[in-house]
Amino acid sequence: MNKQSIQIALAYMSVVIGGGFASGQEVLQFFTHFGVIGVAGTVISALLFAFIGMQIARMSSKMQADSHKQVLSRLFGAKAGLGVDLVLSFFLFGVGVVMLAGSGSTLSQQFGLPPLAGAILLTVLAVLTLCLNVKRIIHLISVVMPFLLTMVLLITAYSIFNYNAPLETLEAVATSNTDKASSNWFLSALLYASFNIAVGFPMLAVIGGLTKQPKAAAIGGVVGGLGLGALILTLNVGLFANINQLQGVELPTLALAGRIAPWLSVLMSLSLICMIYSTAVGMFFAFSARFARPETTRFKLVSLVSILIGLGLSQVGFTKLVGTVYPLLGYVGLALILAIAFSWIRGRSADAAAQKAELEASL
Questions:
Q1: What's the Cα-to-Cα distance from 320 to each of 54, 101, 207, 323, 324, rounded to whole Å?
Q2: 69: burial class by Cβ within 10 Å (0-12, 13-18, 19+)?
Q3: Residue pair 130/294 in contact by the 8 Å Cβ criterion
Q4: Distance between terminal CA atoms of the chain?
Q5: 16 in helix, strand or coil?
Q6: Is residue 222 classed exposed, middle or buried when 0-12, 13-18 and 19+ CB atoms within 10 A define those classes?
Q7: In contact, 68 and 201? CB cutoff 8 Å
Q8: Model's pTM, two decimal places?
Q9: Residues in Cβ contact with 274 at an 8 Å cutoff, skipping those fewer than 6 apart
């Protein structure tokens, strides 16, 4: 695996591991609340992450794509690709709204502030970043991601080895919860992979296009996808092992940190705010850039209006938004997965036909 493969793998993982993943709420609704069978769901998601990541990276590398729109056009055709792009853009806005709600929940759970206060704080920061072009803030915040990921893994590992309830109790508590992404664990696993692929698709397509070696790009997609699967599995097991103490909690990883030490909970909450901020800015930037050129007056106006609308919508609540926006985005992602799978099958059929023709010509 060369340097380009490693870069693609890390980029793939970083774009998917946002504030929603780090909070634990995503994994809780898509996997943990299904009980032990949720572990099988994480394996299915991991395999999908690896396969689809490989196909997107390799396809964009072959095309030398400089935009995800080119890949969408190849997969769906010009008109349908434009439609998918528009739908995807609006769902990215939805993820930004979820992040605003997540900010409110973080400050509310950790410091007892009203949820609206945290949402307003993130709104102000996002508006300043996008409208005043404060680029250094994004660069500084990006440094937090590896630190936050390490914290989540350490907290999860500690929690796995310090659970205090029998398996039967954990299973009963987990499966009795109604906050689930869908009614079926298998569909939930498909939706989790597909919505994350939909979110990560634009970035992965561009990064793959920068690589002139399709094989290296494909390896990066596979490694990144399997890495994501390992992280999801670890977090899911940690949440399940402590599910009896996480009922009604909007930010499970923050609650687990508080059980270890109060200072760790404060540190975790600040890191989580940074990650949520980074994800929110990325989503609102992608949405606004779809309708206006970045750094123009129109772009700043679109950013301001969209974020303010998002602030109002965020008051629905973090848990409810995760359970609504993400599964819907997952269905959009499923269309993307099916198109990629069809393209792969068609490509293999064409290769097989070409090899057969070569063989017959040589005889």
A1: 32, 10, 33, 5, 6
A2: middle
A3: no
A4: 38
A5: helix
A6: buried
A7: yes
A8: 0.80
A9: 141, 144, 148
- Which residue type sits at 276? I
| Structure-block tokens of residue 163 | 């659970």
pLDDT digits (tens, 9 = 90+) for 245-262: 888 788 888 888 888 888
pLDDT tens sequence across 314-337: 888 877 887 778 788 778 888 888
The whole-angstrom separation of Cα 81 and Cα 69 is 7
| 19 within 8 A of 280, measured Cβ to Cβ | yes
Tokens encoding 51: 């396969």
| CA atoms of 32 and 252, how far apart (whole Å) | 11
CB 21 within 8 A of CB 192: no
Distance (Å) of CA 254 to CA 96, 115, 225, 239, 319: 20, 16, 25, 11, 14
Chain-centroid distance, C-alpha 279: 9
Domain 3-317+325-344, what fold? Answer: Hydantoin permease (1.10.4160)
How many other CB atoms are there within 10 angstroms of residue 14's CB atom? Answer: 17
Which residues touch 346 (CB under 8 Å, ≥6 apart)?
A: none
- What distance in Å separates the CA atoms of residue 278 and residue 149, rounded to the nearest whole number? 14
322 neighbors 26 (Cβ within 8 angstroms): yes
